[in-house]
Write a structure and sequence with these properties.
By secondary structure, the protein is an alpha+beta fold. The protein contains 17 helices and 51 strands. Among the domains are: 132 residues, no CATH class; 263 residues, glycosyl hydrolase (family 31) (Immunoglobulin-like, Sandwich), CATH 2.60.40.1760; 207 residues, Sandwich (Immunoglobulin-like), CATH 2.60.40.1180. Strand 30, helix 12 and strand 31 form a beta-alpha-beta unit.
């Protein structure tokens, strides 16, 4: 969680007597020279004693302890622009010599070779590494690896960091007798005029990756290589960012974990250097030859197309960027190696499976309750308020599975310690026990920084820090002292996951706290890792702790949020006028106190042989915050193994999720850990889900949540959801109405917003109550379907949320479609994403090939021409949901909790294809255990007016089957039988073509799937 106003200077100090600010360099401010050339602010000696202040929060006087406010300049780095925008930046491709290959030696599954500089060193953004090794390996029947790394450790590259397999899994050669010759990829290389290589798809002859005509640049702080791409290419992935699902020309994606809200087209919280490249071919109707489709993406509905997809993964954790330009993609990294993996597909679904199964790991299986509705807010101030929220959900009969606490519950924002005044342990036990008795759950936030006590205050004890200090688990400065940044509690230290005892300390801390607070899961935040100052700003200043962040918190004077979504001025004109007036007054007041800033010139550093400048590297990636140290632990922070943060910044999020997963398995034994994390890296899905971060209460944020979720599906993190109704800014009835319905079809479903903004629980507005209950009824009835999808993702690497282009891979008209999406293979969701709308446009893919789509609500088949973009009715409170013909969907009754839903009777929806067939599956287990004693798989097949259900496994499902609904039955049945026994409880609608069979409980009293059955009509 990060309040987005941190970017502007602090507009006030909470205590005028302590608001002494003076501009000077960080080298003066911090004795450890954390970032030596960065303007920051001096903290003068101030008293640590606090007085009492008062602030109006929504008109209510609220008292608080006054702290020293860190100056805004403390989180400002060098005023430089990345070299991608520097008009005087050297172009490495024009001044560097490249390499030449020699000493080629064939291996069982590929070959190795030496690469040597082909000319004089260019040393353009670092020191050239003269000798490299390249290893080519056909690792499996679908995976090819290309690894280029330094051949020798020398004085020039002794600090060159190569990512170890112990931190991030490194794919290895497959089983020796695996038929790697079946791979549809071929590696070729040339020394003309310098070393280049290409990867071809054998079945089509298409070149899917080629560095021909470019040079390889490999320096200790700068690596660059370029690959050609076809005209008008279709790339997906390359996260994390907010962008349309299709990545086009003239776009740069940056791989540097950043805590900075949710800006469009800039680097966000996680790093996933992987893309899927889909290429469409038009098939000649006469001879069947294929021609690559390029240029205009408009397609002919009469033409026949086919697509091939492949994947590319660069296993490198350094700061990187990829420039997607017309006809090529340029990769740039600030260190590491070129560790490339190619996956041959040939569909997106297969690429995603190959990537997860062979490269980063399969996603964690979630507990069943995790798919219920979650409610959170930064601003639930005590247990009483929490209970009121729970009671209100029950009062309005809105499902609520889990209630969450943001940092409010903490004592002075300290991890693993409750505030004894507002969240005492005894009251908490009573509250949590009540939740558990009702089949509900409790999750809390845990931040990534640890408060370091004030040495001048004997009462300022904090055992979590003291135990960590004792075990030596925190990051260091170069002189061996602890690196001290600033986060919510004040000055803080940061766990060093390379330290021998770090995981032990983290587990101990969680287990000790769990004795008092029986949480059901953990929410990891601030894990980029974030810090509110540049460098070790707390060194020598701990006598002031706890200090206030260098920006205004929500609701503090000058920081009241008057933002509302688009359309609010129409639907709530009076409130909008009042908010606009107050906003204008606040802006004017703030402007009067803001100090002007002057633009500094580019900071260009010169490479020095054998010396790495990690604070200001000669090449600076296009990081949204500029200086790599801004709002983050500085690159020169040191880990226990001597590795600098420069080399592993992007891995903190992955490592804390891993540590938390292991801690939860020991704390809540036997149950699958439930973890939602903010910062992720390739492979994080093995441990946790992810939420979309600090979004906004805007229609734009709601729209972008869809491509963000689809990207996460590609990356192997299917458990994803956005802060429904928006985190920052005041939501309104219309936006929250639409968003609560949209998020009901995301795997992770949570409403969450910030401290001072208006409450946005779904019971706040009458229409949102109705809209939420309507969408939730669909979601909860389909929990068996969603749980089965997750089991498939966990075991095979398939996706849960899917882009239409992935599910219908031979339709090029869908390449950029991300306003609609699929939930699994069977459900098409078409949300309203703009204000003041009562209709929505949508397409129905596959119609040309005979796909049938059924409206969820009236269960009739949609009549639409192939390729047509039709207008659907979508009054407020209605979200369009359609079932794909050929699907069988198992259901249970919707209820207020997943526990109640799981204990209800079963039903089945069978949506017949045009041929009268359908298939589906169901997975059942106990919903929580890591190791299952028994499971059940049910297969469904419909054909020839019969629906077959057959089960395998030892799980004893006691709930009976109540009814079966069959859509698309063209002729009225004269009778219906179950295993040959005639049934009287059926009804056929001649208009809708729907057959409903009810009253099956007696025939299945031993359990819906206890015996195989055939329903015939």
């Amino acid at each position: 969680m990060m309040f987005p106003s941190f970017k502007r200077p602090a507009l006030f100090a909470l205590s005028a007597s302590t608001a002494v600010m003076a501009q000077m360099t960080t080298s003066d401010f911090s004795p450890n020279n954390a970032v030596s050339d960065t303007p920051s602010a001096q903290i003068t000696s101030v008293s640590s004693s606090a007085s009492i202040g008062t602030v109006l929060l929504h008109g209510t006087p609220t008292t608080y302890s006054v702290q020293y406010t860190l100056p805004a300049a403390i989180d400002v780095g060098a005023n430089l622009l990345p070299n991608i925008e520097d008009p005087e930046a050297k172009v490495a491709q024009t001044v560097c010599p490249g390499y030449r290959a020699s000493n080629v030696e064939h291996t069982q599954h590929g070959f190795t070779a030496s690469l040597s500089l082909a000319g004089a060193s260019c040393n353009v953004y670092g020191t050239d590494i003269e000798d490299l090794n390249i290893t080519i390996a056909y690792q499996s029947s679908h995976r090819l690896s290309v690894n280029i790394s330094p051949a020798f450790v020398t004085a020039e590259n002794s600090s060159h960091y190569i990512l170890p397999s112990g931190i991030v899994y490194k794919p290895e050669q497959g089983v020796p007798d695996e038929p790697t010759e079946d791979i549809d990829l071929q590696f070729v290389w040339s020394n003309d005029p310098t070393f280049s290589f290409a990867v071809l798809r054998k079945s089509t002859g298409d070149v899917i990756f080629s560095t021909e005509g470019t040079v390889l640049v490999y320096e200790d702080q700068f690596i660059e290589f370029v690959s050609a791409l076809p005209e008008n290419y279709n790339l997906y992935g390359m996260g994390e960012n907010l962008h349309g699902i299709r990545l086009g020309d003239n776009y740069t994606t940056t791989f540097y974990a950043a805590d900075n809200g949710n800006p469009i087209d800039r680097n966000l919280y996680g790093v996933h250097p992987m893309y899927v490249d889909t290429r469409y071919y038009e098939k000649d109707p006469v001879n069947g030859t294929l021609s690559l489709l390029t240029g205009d993406t408009d397609t002919d509905t009469n033409a026949s197309y086919i697509s091939y997809s492949h994947g590319v993964y660069l296993r490198n954790a350094h700061g990187m960027e990829a420039l997607m330009q017309n006809g090529n993609i340029t990769w740039r990294a600030l260190g590491g190696s070129i560790d490339l993996y190619f996956f041959d597909g040939p569909t997106q679904a297969e690429v995603t499976k190959q990537y997860q199964l062979g490269a980063v790991g399969l996603p964690a299986m979630q507990q069943y309750w995790a798919f219920g509705y979650h409610q959170c807010r930064w601003g639930y101030k005590n247990w009483t308020m929490m209970q009121d929220v729970v009671d209100n959900f029950a009062k309005f009969e809105i499902p609520m599975e889990t209630i969450w606490n943001d940092i409010d519950y903490m004592f002075q924002y300290r991890d693993f310690e409750n505030d004894p005044n507002t969240f005492p342990y005894d009251q908490g036990k009573q509250f949590i026990d009540g939740l558990h008795a009702n089949g509900q759950h409790y999750v809390t936030i845990v931040d990534s920084a640890i408060y370091i006590p004030n040495p001048d205050n004997e009462t300022d004890a904090y055992s979590v820090y003291s135990r960590g200090h004792e075990l030596d688990v925190f990051m260091k400065n170069a002189d061996g002292s602890e690196y001290i940044g600033a986060v919510w509690p004040g000055f803080t230290v940061f766990p060093d996951w390379h330290a021998e005892n770090a995981s032990q300390w983290w587990t101990e801390s969680l287990m000790n706290w769990y004795q008092n607070v029986q949480v059901d899961g953990i929410w990891i935040d601030m894990s980029e890792v974030s810090s509110f100052c540049v460098g070790s700003c707390g060194t020598g200043q701990l006598h002031m702790n706890p200090v206030h962040p260098p920006f205004d918190l929500p609701g503090e004077p000058g920081s009241v949020d008057y933002n509302y979504p688009e359309g609010f001025n129409v639907t709530n004109s009076t409130e909008y006028a009042i908010a606009s007036s107050k906003s204008a007054i606040q802006v004017a007041a703030n402007s009067a106190t803001m100090t002007s800033t002057t633009t500094q010139p580019y900071l260009r550093t010169t490479p020095t042989a054998g010396v790495r400048n990690v604070d200001h590297p000669p090449y600076v990636i296009n990081n949204q915050l500029g200086d790599l140290a801004v709002h983050a632990v500085a690159p020169n922070a040191t880990h226990s193994d001597g590795v600098e943060e420069y080399d592993v910044h992007n891995l903190f999020g992955l490592e804390i999720l891993n540590a938390t997963y292991n801690a939860l398995t020991q704390t809540i034994r036997g149950k699958r850990p439930f973890i939602i994390g903010r910062s992720t890296f390739a492979g994080a899905g093995q441990y946790a889900g992810h939420w979309g971060g600090d979004n906004y209460a805007t229609w734009e944020s709601m729209l972008f949540s869809i491509p963000q979720a689809l990207d996460m599906a590609l990356f192997g993190i299917p458990m994803f959801g956005a802060d429904t109704c928006g985190f920052s800014g005041n939501s309104d009835e219309e936006l929250c109405n639409r968003w609560m319905q949209l998020s009901a079809f995301f795997p992770f479903y949570r409403n969450h917003n910030t401290l001072d903004d208006n409450s946005q629980e779904p019971y706040i507005w009458g229409s949102v109550i109705d809209a939420s209950k309507r969408a939730m009824a669909i979601r909860y009835s389909l929990l068996p379907y969603m749980y089965t999808l997750f089991h498939m993702a966990h075991t095979t690497g398939s996706t849960v949320m899917r882009a239409m282009a992935w599910e219908f891979p031979h339709d090029p008209s869908l390449i950029a479609a991300n306003r609609q999406f699929m939930l699994g293979p069977s459900l098409l969701i078409t949300p309203v994403l703009i204000p003041l709308a009562t209709t929505v446009n949508g397409v129905f893919p596959g119609i040309k090939e005979g796909t049938v789509w059924y409206d969820w609500y009236n269960q009739t088949a949609v009549s639409v021409a192939p390729g047509a973009n039709i207008t659907l009715n979508a009054p407020l409170g209605h979200i369009n949901v359609h079932i794909r013909g050929g699907s069988v969907l198992p259901q249970q009754e919707a209820a207020l909790t997943t526990t109640a839903s799981r204990n209800s009777s079963w039903s089945v929806i069978t949506a017949l294809s045009a041929e009268g067939t359908a298939t589906g599956s169901l997975y059942i287990d106990d919903g929580e255990s890591i190791i299952q004693n028994s499971t059940l798989f049910v297969d469904f097949t419909a054909e020839n007016n019969r629906l077959y259900a057959s089960a395998r496994g030892l799980w004893q499902e006691k709930n009976a089957l109540a009814n079966v609904t069959v859509l698309g039955v063209q002729n009225a049945p004269s009778n219906v039988t179950l295993n040959g026994q005639a049934l009287s409880g059926f009804n056929y609608n001649f208009t809708t073509k729907v057959l409903k069979v009810t009253g099956l409980q007696n025939a299945t009293s031993s359990g819906a799937w206890a015996n195989d059955w055939v329903l015939q009509w």
